[in-house]
Amino acid sequence: MNTQSILTDIKKKKLSPVYLLHGEEPYFIDLISDAIEHQVLDEAQKGFDQSVVYGKETDFSTLISMAKRYPMMSDYQVIIVKEAQNLKWKDDELLQKYLEHPTPTTVLVFAHKYSKFDKRKKSYKTLDKVGVVVESNKLYEDKVSGWINEQLSAAGRKIHPQAAAMMADYLGTDLSKVANELEKLMLNVSAEQEISAADIERNIGISKDFNVFELNTALSKRNSLKAFQIVNYFAANPKSNPIPVVIGSLGTYFTKILKYHYLPDKTSAAAAKALGVHPFFVKEYEYAARNFNRRKTFDIIHLIKEYDLKSKGMNVGPMTNHGDLMSELIYKILN
């Protein structure tokens, strides 16, 4: 089941006796556990029939005793175990026995964050059989822009590909942060209007002219004036443009340029799929590949790795600042 279908079922009160929400990405775990916490019971019922406990502060004996009770004021009793990764899972024999005959009026939720549940455990197989198991995986950097489009599309909204790419580059893979910014955009931009780069600048604080996305574009065109203007802006605003983020983005960008060089099918649709980008950007990669041949692209990727180490204090003099390092790197990329 995907997240949206689970949320729909929760809203319709089509509930499972047990939910195991686990994985490295907390966003989807919070989304589902919050929906159960806030939508299954009303405020009056929660006082009698809802319990929120924490993994460090409870054990399976206590949990199973709670789970076997029947609701007092509603059709369901809800028990949410937050930070369930801190439970002593080696002692889960009681849970295994409970899962063989779960109380039908109890909804037991395990919010197991920041790590995957051990699928070798017998209880995992039983959880998967009698309940709902969601593995919440981290989103790769090149998938964030697509996820932004999906979220807005589900809400009946549109965003320009450039604006989505700006958000993805600036906010990274922290989906909770991205989701909060999307909510802000939907509140402040008319529903009939496509969200633009200017809207991103006004509402999120990302400069539409001086950001990592625009730096990549300037380099692809070998526009040295624009590239150095952007790097100087970064040097003047280091907190908004930390060098690890900038160098990471450059590395991803030039790796995709190299990948484009080796694509057997360079048509727009095929290239977009292979590179993990919106078709809108394929022309830019085509242009960049003409400006940076395979040998030069290999050399640039090596340079980026070298300057990544320098930015971390390795193989560099103590007086070299991040602004100087970025300027050096951009000069070497262009020359």
Compose a concise summary of this entry.
This is DNA polymerase III subunit delta. With 335 residues, this protein is of the alpha/beta class.
Provide the fold topology:
Layout (H helix, E strand, L loop, with lengths): L2 H9 L6 E6 L2 H14 L3 H7 E5 L5 H8 L9 E6 L10 H8 L5 E8 L8 H9 L1 E4 L8 H11 L6 H11 L3 H14 L8 H8 L7 H9 L3 H13 L6 H19 L6 H8 L6 H10 L2 H18 L10 H13 L1
Parallel strand pairs: 1-4, 1-5, 2-3, 3-4
Helix pairs in contact: 1-2, 4-5, 5-6, 7-8, 7-9, 8-10, 9-10, 11-12, 12-17, 13-15, 13-16, 16-17
What does this structure look like?
- It is an enzyme of class 2 (transferase).
- Its EC number is 2.7.7.7.
- The structure is a single chain.
- The chain is α/β, with parallel strands linked by helices.
- The chain has 3 domains: 3-135, P-loop containing nucleotide triphosphate hydrolases (Rossmann fold, 3-Layer(aba) Sandwich); 141-204, Helicase, Ruva Protein, domain 3; 212-334, Up-down Bundle (Zinc Finger, Delta Prime, domain 3), CATH 1.20.272.
- The protein is 56% helix and 9% strand.
- It has a 5-stranded parallel β-sheet with strand order 2-3-4-1-5, sandwiched between helices.
Please provide the ordered H/E string of secondary-structure elements: HEHHEHEHEHEHHHHHHHHHHH
CATH class of the largest domain: Alpha Beta
Approximate helicity band: 55-70%
SS-derived structural category? alpha/beta
CATH architecture of the largest domain: 3-Layer(aba) Sandwich
Residue share in β-strands: 5-15%
Order the strands across the largest sheet as they lie in space. 2-3-4-1-5
Q: How many distinct domains?
A: 3
Which consecutive residue ranges, at least 5 long each, have pLDDT under 50?
none
What is the oligomeric state here? single chain
